[in-house]
Amino acid sequence: MTSPKHAWDTERGRYYRDPAGGPDLVSVTNVLGTAVAKPALVPWAVKLTAEHCVDNRLEVARRATQDRDGILKEIKSVHRDARDRAANLGTRVHDRAEKMALRAPFEADIQVDPYARQLTLFWERWSVDLDRHIVAAEITFVHRRLGYAGTGDCMLWLPTGPSRRRELWLIDYKTSATRPASSVYPENALQLAALRYAEAVLLPDDTDGAVPRIERTGVLNLRQRSHALVPMPADRAAHRAFRGALETTKWLHAAPSAYPALLPPAADTRPTRKAA
User: Fold this and answer.
1) CA–CA separation, 209 vs 11, rounded Å?
2) How far is the CA of 171 from the CAs of 46, 93, 233, in angstroms?
3) Which three-class secondary structure state does DSSP give residue 191?
4) What is the pLDDT of residue 156?
5) H or E element: which one contains 77?
6) Sign of dihedral through CA atoms 55, 57, 63, 69?
7) pLDDT of residue 80
8) Distance CA 100, CA 88 (A)
9) Measured between alpha carbons, how far is 22 from 147 in angstroms, rounded to an integer?
10) Interior CA angle at 270 toward 264 and 272, to 5°?
């Protein structure tokens, strides 16, 4: 996950501080992580854990008799460690993509290089001139009335309209070492719709700018040896669905973490007429 300028992590997930001085704004990715189910994550975690146990069966068996608590702790962390490594790589790829789009210098990173080459190849195949066709990279969108904010990876002009007319696209980069380049998740449309229909964008001097008229939205999947631009239906219907998830997130974040138990009424200790 990238670290936009005004974003900060709280015990309830990522929020954005509003440079205009208003209340903090919940991040779009926080909303999706809190209120949108991701059923594919459980099978993925089970698969990684099972493969680890089978691939290291002798060590697991030995440790199970000598250090049961320790090996259980390690096994439980297998999927979390893999998730954190993937997130870290994704952050580095996003950082490289931003610097490449802005022609800024970047540090060498051999793990990022294959993904960067695919991004360059995407630009070449779609005849993207970085100076003329990149509108913005890593730009923050805000919707103060609804109380959320999020950062878009790239806005650029692509020749996808009739007679190769260039249309303005809002694109989100996704990286993976295992998923096919053509694969996307439905919630990707909610993320893009939240940005597309925001009230304003934050300019470099922290003032508000108008949200451009975005004609198309999509996910650019970057893989080590391939890439694919997948259009997503980030329309008003998707935005309504996001708003439902937003309300759920707000309720969950404001709800108490514990509730008092209800005790039965105290027993009446006064003597009954029969006992008297």
Assistant:
1) 30
2) 31, 14, 12
3) helix
4) 97
5) helix 68-101
6) positive
7) 86
8) 18
9) 10
10) 105
pLDDT in the model for residue 244: 97
| Bridge partners of residue 222, in order along the sequence | 175, 227
Structure tokens at 192: 């893009």
Q: What is the pLDDT of residue 275?
A: 56
DSSP 8-state code for residue 184: -
Question: Which of 4, 17, 31, 13 lies closest to 194 in space, CA to CA?
Answer: 31
Please tell me the predicted confidence (pLDDT) of residue 34: 95
Q: What is the DSSP letter of 163?
A: G
| Segments of the chain scoring below 70 in pLDDT | 1-2, 268-276
Q: State which H helix or E strand residue 27 sits in.
A: strand 25-27
- Plot region of 212 (φ>0 → left; ψ -120 to 50 → alpha; else → beta): beta
Beta bridge partners of 152: 139
In sequence order, the β-bridge partners of residue 157 are 168
CB atoms within 10 A of CB 275: 6
Residue with tokens 């009739």: 162
Our separate counts of H helices and E strands in the chain read 8, 10
pLDDT digits (tens, 9 = 90+) for 149-189: 999 999 999 999 999 999 999 999 999 888 899 999 999 99
Q: Is 131 left (phi over 0), alpha (psi -120 to 50) or beta?
A: alpha
Tens digit of each residue's pLDDT (9 = 90 or more) over 232-271: 999 999 999 999 999 999 999 999 988 999 999 887 666 6
How many residues in the chain?
276
pTM, entire model: 0.87
Determine how many CB atoms are found less than 10 A away from the CB of residue 155: 20
Contact 16, 2 (CB under 8 A): no
